[in-house]
């Protein structure tokens, strides 16, 4: 993969972008998803990626962030985000779709491409996981903070 194309698909920490700063009113779910994505990228610097890989989580994070930004994601982009071979990533996408967490549809702008989006169930699952990770009362720096839905 060419360097300029690969840079587009690496999480923000690989591009030297820091996660957004916490706002006085508390982090948004988008902020928390970006922070989680950046943390996963930092982990990859210290541990072999193939050992600590969870491509389903990486895909779901990317889809959640894209959904919050109202940005389309195509199957090819999701494959690149996963860090797996195309065959393995497509199997993972099939499983996530079978679990009704994401859906594929023809991209209205280009009928040759398939767009991937979170389903309502997938969005609810990601929202619940991010809240559980960061916003459970009484523990950690973000826990107990109000979250903005963004």
UniProtKB/TrEMBL annotation:
Keyword DNA-binding: yes
Protein origin, superkingdom: Bacteria
InterPro entries from the UniProt entry: WH-like_DNA-bd_sf, WH_DNA-bd_sf
Keywords, in A-Z order: DNA-binding
Annotated spans, Disordered: 1-25
Keyword DNA-binding attached: yes
GO terms for MF: DNA binding; DNA-binding transcription factor activity
Designated name of the protein: Winged helix DNA-binding protein
Organism, as annotated: Sphingomonas zeae
């Amino acid at each position: 993969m060419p360097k300029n194309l690969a840079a587009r698909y690496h999480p923000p920490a690989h591009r030297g972008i820091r996660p957004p700063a916490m706002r006085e009113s508390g982090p948004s779910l988008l902020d928390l998803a970006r922070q989680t994505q950046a943390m996963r990228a930092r982990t990859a610097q210290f541990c072999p990626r193939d050992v600590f890989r969870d491509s389903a989580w990486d895909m779901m994070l990317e889809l959640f962030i894209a959904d919050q930004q109202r940005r389309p994601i195509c199957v090819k982009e999701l494959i690149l985000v996963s860090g797996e071979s195309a065959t393995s990533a497509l199997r993972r996408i099939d499983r996530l779709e079978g679990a009704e967490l994401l859906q594929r549809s023809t991209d209205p702008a280009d009928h040759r491409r398939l767009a991937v989006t979170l389903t309502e169930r997938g969005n609810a699952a990601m929202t619940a996981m991010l809240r559980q990770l960061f916003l459970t009362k009484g523990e950690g720096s973000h826990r107990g903070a109000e979250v903005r839905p963004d």
